[in-house]
Amino acid sequence: MPARLPFFAIVHQAGGGDEVMKIPVLGWRQKLIVTSLLCLVLPSLITLILTGVYTKDELRSKASAKAEQAMGVADLYVSNLIRDMINAFNGIQYDSEMITYLRVAYNKYSSSEPHDIDFFSYKQIAEKLDHLSFFGGQTYITIMLPNGLLITNYSTYNNDMSSLYGQGWVRQLLESPVNTTFWTGLQPNYIRLDADRNPNLVTIARTFQLYANSPNALIILSKPEEQFRQVFAQYAADPLLMLVDPGGTIISHTDKDQVGLQLRDTMQETDSDVVKWQGQEYISTTRTLSYGVWSLRSLTPSRSVTARISNLFNYVSILQILFFLLFSLVLFYLLRQLTKPIMRLSRTASKVEMGDLNVRSHVSGDDEIGHLGLAFDRMLDQVKAMIRQVETEQNRKRMAELELLQAQINPHFLFNTLNSIRLHALLKEEEEIAATIGSLSTLLRMTINRNNEFVPLHEEVDTVEQYMRLMNFRHQDHVRLTTNLASDTLLECIPRFTLQPLIENAYIHGLQQKNGEISISAWRRAHLLVIRIADDGVGMTASKLLEVRQGSPISGIGIKNVNERLKIIYGEPYGMELESAPGQGLAITLTIPLNGGKESAHVQGHTGG
């Protein structure tokens, strides 16, 4: 039967009735091929359109990209310089030792007259300042304390440092909230010994407090402007790079003559990208630094970008079409090959759906599809095996039911017959025979009654006593059975016929069918019921005891079967332990959880007939 194709139905009215038009729905393979081709053609088509639209802007984009690249590298190094200054601020303000030394110097300077400096603290501070300024190039550090004490990492010889207090930005900053960072920017070098070599400094300042609610102290960090200019000169090839503050002042420039000029006064901006500056046209790009409020600005001369890509669109269009045709053919072939196992699995599943369980996909391989095919075939094998197993079990069940009907007899007939024999024996004063028949009747009733898997402990012990009476009568022995059961264990339920195989083992193998004593004890221990069966028989050697523990059968159901039965019912932690030695008998200890998850004895009721 051919595979059924899915359809998508469209209902529309034509004339006086509804007309149904069925449109075939694409299969999984067709959907995959169409989707793949769309994913291939759409990017190509969009690329062609965007290339055509933006070809006229290629010149500007290329220059801007080059400038962005240069500014990206410059931003990295300039930001490193500024980050070193920020780290120096933090190293002074948040270093507990530094604050302690500053407080000592401050207190000593304030309390002495004339003002004196604590040279130990000053030395410690100087060492820390030297360490902070060691990395990241030359940095001038000035700490202005509220009492007029100045601490620097440079020589103040011949410097009129009091002029710093007269500058407007310093007075403004001292009155600002604590932890205020002031991006001062460009200023003349206030260090006379270095002014000729570095006429300009790039400065950042921050306020802090030595004590809570004390007047502001000030940290001033300055770097020579030349450090920034060297970065621009190294990483700016064609474009002109400059560092500009929010007011438009050029803080640093590849051309040192431009430092300090106002960019807004000399630049004519025509649009967002192209500007005119000093009579030339430039492509302008701006980038805000990672740290602070300053920004980098790149001016790329338009004349430096002379290469136009006039045939780019045509070349790209031809290449895109050729590649699309080539990759479409390759993709179509590969997708058909890759989806063959899926299609085979689909056809197999359709045949299974129609009831054919003998069909197999025969899809194999090391990939996910191969594993899926193998699993699908194994599943079909298992389904067939399970069907055969169910059929076999049904046949066996019918045979067992027939045998059960054939072998069924009325147990009450046997009990009534035995009771009649027992009454006749009593009438003839054969009390021993009557007692033996009574024990046999009780034991037979326990054997035939299988309604309850669990019985109370006292009932199981009563069954064992009847069994012992029959064994003594049979062998003409006198084996005494003693019981010591705690009162709180009598109603605890245990599996039926748990003790009888163990008593049989003790009677036959332990006492070797001779006179002796077998004892049964039971007690509670935490959440456990512990039962101990011991005899005073011949005992076992260590090797024989090991064989028994490893499951060597002894007699009847055997100790092994009883132990396995307990573990199946209660789990591995429970079961029995054996103790023996030659001439000292055998002791078997059973460990059972209280109730064992079963109903209690008083709910089950007595199992007697």
Automatic annotation (TrEMBL):
It comes from the Bacteria. The keyword Mitochondrion does not apply. One of its GO terms (molecular function) is ATP binding. It is found in: Cell membrane. Keywords: ATP-binding, Cell membrane, Coiled coil, Kinase, Membrane, Nucleotide-binding, Phosphoprotein, Transferase, Transmembrane, Transmembrane helix, Two-component regulatory system. The keyword Nucleotide-binding applies. Its main location: membrane. It is a multi-pass membrane protein. The chain crosses the membrane at residues 32-54, 312-335. GO terms for cellular component: plasma membrane. Residues 336-388 form the HAMP domain. Residues 383-410 form a coiled coil. This is HAMP domain-containing protein. It comes from Paenibacillus athensensis.
